[in-house]
Amino acid sequence: MTSAQIALAEGWGVRAIVSPLGSGRINDSYLAQGAEDRWVLQRINPFVFRRPDVLMDNVARVSVHFNTKHPGWTPTLIPTRDGANHAQLDGDIWRLWSYANGRSLAKLDNDRQAEAAGRAVGQTHRWLQDLPGPRLDAAIPGHLQLDRCLAAFDAGPDAEPELMDFIDARRHLATRFRECNSTIHGDGHLDNLMFGEDGNVVAVLDLDTVMWGHWAWDFGDLVRSVLGGQALPTRFAAAARGYLGAANVQASVDDLVMAPRYITFMIGLRYLTDHLDGDRYFKVGAHGENRQRALDRFRFLQALEAAEPAFMDSAASLVETRGLEDGLNDDDDRDH
Questions:
Q1: Are the CB atoms for 83 and 69 separated by under 8 Å?
Q2: What is the pLDDT of residues 107-144, one digit of tens each?
Q3: CA distance 123 to 114
Q4: In Å, how far are 18, 39, 167, 176, 179 from 184, measured between CA atoms?
Q5: Which of 95, 137, 167, 288 has the fewest Cβ atoms within 10 Å of its own Cβ atom?
Q6: Is 220 helix (H, G, I), strand (E, B) or coil?
Q7: How far apart are CA 294 and CA 112, in angstroms?
Q8: CA-CA distances (angstroms) from residue 129 to 124, 183, 211, 219, 241?
Q9: pLDDT tens digit string along 228-257?
């Protein structure tokens, strides 16, 4: 038996056909196919998640909360035979999820899908704001905080001079979005959205980084992912329209434009830092892959910078329209 099959049998009393699932760069995921049911089994990456109790407490709380709001919005954790939300076997942490129906989209075909993705991330953000209980503690301290990422980069080996110059020229981005203001998903990109046949999102995956943060971190990651490496103003506008219509956040034009640049720079920096540190965080097939991932993000960041005027125009139109709608709503409230 494989380690995954052993985990299923000992932790949940389940025997199933187990096969690798997806291409996640953090945890090991498996599809477990039983006689009538199927599940997703995951082994938690101990280097990334060094506080498994915090991780699983967050995940369990948020999963229950979402499914109270909208059943099926996230998968549910399957309790172990002992009633726990995870199993610890031979030093590994395992968990079992219900299987989420729908399909993931590696790349979007149109702006309508981008708006649907934005609406789903915005709704997820809105529902997180009345999560019962104490404020979530981050499973990864400093996650998505650019100043912490820069400090980690500075503590490691130097990159080549041209990359050092590129990074130094953008350190000012760390002054943006520093003050946390809301509970966020923390990984609000396209890979974590499941689409239904009607083109709308039917489920949101991966709750590992739910935490107290800044709404712009989720929004920036959403936009970065739906753009697919191209600075497309209409797709940016569609994602922002969907997000703002559902999230109920106060966003300026500058916030909307800078958020994807902030998160793109941060992700590229994390890939480069991991490359220089020996690929300990993100999975790679060969050394050098994380460096290439970093270079891809940095090139995309340059494209976003070049497209700033068009993005500003799109964001200004959205903010103005939203302001007019809010004003009409205020008038309606006074009439009643």
A1: no
A2: 999 999 999 999 999 999 999 999 998 999 999 999 99
A3: 14
A4: 32, 26, 27, 17, 13
A5: 288
A6: helix
A7: 29
A8: 9, 6, 11, 15, 20
A9: 999 999 999 999 999 999 998 999 999 999
What is the three-class DSSP state of 93? Answer: strand
pTM of structure: 0.92
* 235 in Cβ contact with 108 (< 8 Å): yes
Let me know how long the chain is.
336
Strand, helix or coil for residue 77: strand
Q: For 278-282, which contacts have Cβ atoms below 8 Å and span 24 or more sequence positions?
A: 280/47, 281/26, 281/47, 281/48, 282/25, 282/26
Sign of the CA dihedral with 11 first, then 14, 18, and 24 last: negative
In this prediction, residues 56-72 reach a mean pLDDT of 97
Please give the structure tokens belonging to residue 313.
């125009």
Q: Enter the tokens of residue 184.
A: 């966020």
Q: In this structure, how many other beta carbons lie within 10 angstroms of the beta carbon of residue 16? A: 20
Q: Which amino acid is at 304?
A: L
